[in-house]
Amino acid sequence: MINWREKAAAFGIHFLLTLALSAGAAALVFLAWFPDPFQKMLGGTTLFEIMVLCDLGLGPLSSFIVYNSRKSRRALLFDYTVIGVIQLAAFIYGLYAVANNRPAYVVFVGDRFEVVTAGAIDDADLARGGDRYSKRPWGPELVAIREAKDVEEHNKVLFSALAGKDYS
Predict the structure, then answer these.
(1) Is residue 103 a contact partner of residue 117, using CB atoms and an 8 Å limit?
(2) DSSP letter at 115?
(3) Per-residue DSSP letters for 64-103?
(4) How many Å apart are CA 13 and CA 19, to the nearest integer?
(5) For each of the chain's 168 residues, which pLDDT tens digit applies?
(6) What is the DSSP letter of 139?
(7) Residue 131, burial from CB neighbour count under 10 angstroms (0-12, 13-18, 19+)
(8) Of 47, 168, 25, whose CA–CA distance to 39 is shortest?
(9) pTM over 0.85
(10) 5 and 15 in contact (C-beta within 8 Å)?
(11) How far apart are the first and last CA of the chain?
């Protein structure tokens, strides 16, 4: 006979643990990576919501499905280890996707501001960035671009644009 109360308790405990982990991730995402107004502007809120809803739904639901008090301790440990590893891997991948979409720089280009996301910056370009620009920033930094000084520099910018790199 199925003990629904025990299954609901297993679901609740797993849900609360997942919720605590998601709350910590929300603090990182919305306080550091996507401060206001970038949350809506770049879709960080939607991406994070999808990640958390999948994580909150699938992990505890799996817990509800596999829990059985008649299983041995070893079998339950194995089940929850598999669920935990899969859930943690999905959570880390989701955070990675959100991190790649975060705004790294707000660039003033001539007469407008452009947002450059962390995923749009090549590692090779970061290596040439000097001390200050050698890493992707945790939150958006305000920077500006100076206009090309001469024809040679203008051509360099033009050819990099033809290679797929935006001026900003």
Answers:
(1) yes
(2) E
(3) HHH--TTS-HHHHHHHHHHHHHHHHHHHHHHHHHHHHHSE
(4) 10
(5) 788 999 999 999 999 999 999 999 999 988 888 888 888 787 778 888 888 888 888 889 999 999 998 899 999 999 999 999 999 999 999 999 888 888 888 888 878 888 888 888 888 777 777 778 788 888 888 888 777 677 777 667 666 666 666 665
(6) S
(7) exposed
(8) 47
(9) no
(10) no
(11) 64
Mapped onto helix, strand or coil, the DSSP state of residue 142 is: strand
Residue tagged 């520099």 (tokens)? 153
- Is the Cβ–Cβ distance between 159 and 140 less than 8 Å? no
How far is Cα 65 from Cα 134, in angstroms, rounded to an integer?
Answer: 47
Helix (H) or strand (E) holding 144: strand 141-144
**Which of 92, 79, 99 is CA-nearest to residue 22?**
92
Rg (CA), the chain: 23
C-beta of residue 8 within 8 angstroms of C-beta of residue 64: yes
Tokens of 24: 């910590």
Residue 56 has a pLDDT of 85
Per-residue b or e along 145-166, where b marks 16 or more CB atoms closer than 10 Å to that residue's CB: eeeeeeeeeeeeeeeeeeeeee
Distance CA 9, CA 14 (A): 9
Enter the tokens of residue 40. 């809506």
